[in-house]
Amino acid sequence: MARLTDHTPSPEPAAQPAAATASADVALRPATWRDIETLAALDAQLFEHDAWRERTWWDEFAARPRRQYVVAVGAAVPQQRVVADGTAHAPEASPDDADDREPSAPSMPRTDGAPHVSANGHPEHILGYAGLDVAGSTADVMTIAVTPEARGTGLGRRLLDHLVTAATHAGAEALLLEVRADNDPALRLYERAGFDRLTVRRRYYQPGDVDAVILRKLLKETR
Ligand SMILES: CC(C)(COP(=O)(O)OP(=O)(O)OC[C@H]1O[C@@H](n2cnc3c(N)ncnc32)[C@H](O)[C@@H]1OP(=O)(O)O)[C@@H](O)C(=O)NCCC(=O)NCCS
């Protein structure tokens, strides 16, 4: 996955029965800078080896529209909104935040203790996120992740399908990604979604000597 350098919607599959959160109860929306603190905290939990810090997220958001990020939000699993320092995470997406105007400084003071609030006024929790880089004829999956509580519900596939559709609409002919060879859930997700193995970069991930598997999905046929 492109994240390893750490510079450093769409066909909706049928939702599977879910323990915690059915994918059908989850909405996808564009990520905004207001999500960055949450995304960095989640990344630290979900990516053991190469989590993106807030600075990286800011850099990624600064690269839009070439970069595109989406978050999956639902009403479940409030405990996942605890940030690394143990305090309650308190952002606040406002419904009229569509233009996503960003502050000039990368760190906005947090002024309240309220959770994200969706357009219908309900607390909103990020259950997953995904990002894309589109440059000419090729697009890359920058990241994709689902919180443990929401896994196995089809949300990862839904996020991936969203990226496939977004890349196709942006004119890309192929979508590429790289994944650790020991990441069986992700490999399964990608292969079920029609990605083919292109090559393997031996011992790419360090430490640990873990290979990187490069996968590709041709997009022309999905247009
Ligand atoms: C990889 C990840 C995004 C999958 O999310 P998810 O919401 O659980 O995936 P889905 O429920 O949509 O399942 C998609 C497919 O992957 C398969 N899959 C998901 N988790 C799996 C697991 N633990 N073992 C085997 N297969 C698994 C599912 O069976 C499904 O295939 P299907 O067509 O047979 O149903 C999630 O495990 C995750 O966030 N992992 C940590 C972050 C990460 O590694 N991201 C990828 C970096 S390259």
TrEMBL record:
Keywords recorded for this protein, A-Z: Acyltransferase, Transferase
Organism ancestry: Bacteria, Bacillati, Actinomycetota, Actinomycetes, Micrococcales
Coiled-coil spans in chain: none
MF terms in GO: N-acetyltransferase activity
One family name in Pfam for this protein: Acetyltransf_1
Name of this protein: Ribosomal-protein-alanine acetyltransferase
Organism: Dermacoccus nishinomiyaensis
Disordered, as annotated region: 1-23, 85-122
Annotated transmembrane regions: none
Comp. bias intervals (Low complexity): 13-23
Residue stretches making up the N-acetyltransferase domain: 26-220
Matching InterPro entries: AcTrfase_RimI/Ard1, Acyl_CoA_acyltransferase, Bact_Acetyltransf, GNAT_dom
